[in-house]
Amino acid sequence: MNLTKNHRKNGRALAVIYSDTPERRVFDLTPVGLPEVPALGISRYQQVIAPIKAHRHSECIEIGLCLRGALSLMNQGIEHRVMPGDIYLNKPDETHCLTAHPRGTIVNWLLLRAPLKNQPFLRLKTREARDIWSRLNRLPCHVIAKTDAVRQAFAHLFKYHDQPPSPYRTVGLNTACVSLLMGVIDASSHKATITHSRLIDQVIESLREKPERKASIDSLAREAGMSPSLFISQFKHLTGLPPYHFQLACRLEKSKCLLAETATPITKLAFDLGFCASQHFSSHFKRAYGITPHVWRKQKRHAR
Predict the structure, then answer these.
(1) Higher-confidence residue: 76 or 237?
(2) Is the full-model pTM beyond 0.85?
(3) Among 27, 46, 154, 198, which is disulfide-ready with 108 (CB 3.0 to 4.6 Å)?
């Protein structure tokens, strides 16, 4: 079921499409005691969909947590590659859109209203509410850190939402929401505490710079000074993806630059990036971005 509502605040409308399907669950928490959260959602992209047009959420912060897959977020004209475990924030009046959300991607997200003068905000005192809101607005758009607490808070929000109405349910929703906001703020100030050598950082950076390089797991693990099993585990913890999928994502990102900035034939470009055939490259590109490399290049040229 899909339902569109227009929330109005200070004379300005906020259009939200609510639904409760296996692919997309979006709820308004206003009727259940949290008017500060006009939308709580989880999106499971079963197929590649057309990019959403650039838009803004006036007087709201959008907070998202990528659980699976990889997102391409355009915020204020800057593109961010959001990997599993990463947080993204779109501040009030920031123009943004998701330019790519591949099939299989799963994202938790919510919209949070700004505190109003002389009105309650998550049952916090006025100074506490202003401090939380101020800290959120100072955060970067893209947060890469250990985000287990944020993931757990989102899970608690859905758990309490699905319970029958009761005062306990309202308290649970409010507590989970405060925990989520504090988890986002804390995550931005503390990088993930993972024990690893500088060598694995160098391996990751080399794959970013030269994703076309051919290297086996064994050779990459030797470069990092680790056993293959430990290398794969820590690589995935650091990047959110196994080495092969990370390298593939880097190759596709580099291909966008080459398509836009050079006239290299697509077949040669595919081989130069390490793909075994242009068809192989094209299928991966379309799966990730929803269009073929040829159409991507054509759109970029017309945009100049």
Answers:
(1) 76
(2) no
(3) 154
